[in-house]
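Thread: Modeling a multi-component assembly for a lab meeting

Hi all, long-time lurker, first post. My supervisor asked me to bring a structural picture of a complex we are working on to next week's group meeting, and I have zero experience with this. I have the sequence lines for every component (317 residues in total). Could someone generate the structure of the whole assembly? Inputs are pasted exactly as I received them:
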Amino acid sequence: MTDFNSISLTSSGRLWCLKFYAAPDKKTGALGPWTISLSIVNPSPPTWLDLRVIITEPRRKSARLPPWPLPKGSAVASLLPASSPDLRREKPAIQFRLQTNPHQLQPPTSAKMKPGRNELVAHFAENAMSSGLQFPYAFFVFVFSS
Amino acid sequence: MAYKSVRDVVKHPEAQQSTALIETCAEMCRTKGVNFAKILQDPVFEGHMALYWIIIGRPPPDQYGLLSTILNHCGPLSPDATNEVRLACIQVGDQALFSYLWRHPVYGALSGTDELLLGGASPTDHVEVEEFTAEEIGAFIARFEISQFHKRMSISGRIVFEFIARGLSPC
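Re: Modeling a multi-component assembly
Sure thing. I ran the full set together rather than chain by chain. Output:
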């Protein structure tokens, strides 16, 4: 196979990078607030994104989460916790919504890229539920809609 | 000789003797003091490494044996080799295959701190991806089950996942 470009154009997926991090304080070295970011990795093509992050407790996942694998014909909206009576009875899940607007999310192509173009970022401290996150949450669901 | 044998494996990865051939090459190189890992990560096969072509062949999950053998002899993947793995996995769009590679110790998915916390070089986390193909093209759900999330965030301050999903098709 010699035509490299023809392979690239037929790529059938994107490589996504999901990261949780706590940047250390420059003076004390103590870890700062938790942050979550989503980016795409080279050579993935750019895309628009509507992302929902849902964080639930691990031990109660069978009661709190949609069935898995998903039933055929399921719509994304029907799987969100707010639309499920069973889920509403549980302690609310931590949720974030992130969108690309107006630019597409792009893989990092140079160090000079404008901030926000190559990753979507949310800070746990900005969410009232997640700022009180003290016990070992460990199960996460992410819904993306391009 | 080793290059020729590896090329034969790349051309016919499904052949029953492929895994044995890699093992024989590894042993032969060890005897002669040749760096077999370097051969496996040398992009001499039409501009790509052997690993790239094996992934492009997209073996089914019950036939990851050859891949495993090659990875075991690769040692820690160089940045170029990691890029080759990523490129091939994007091209075939196979999350199951990528997940297998990502979890292999040579991929280096875990930081040194996380290796100590989790007691091994392989991630104990789980990622599942399900894509919607009918009404909502481009939508998908990815689920993550993360071991010792709170402890790792408090100590290493960093947990990273990579996964493959289609999303909206490129124009």
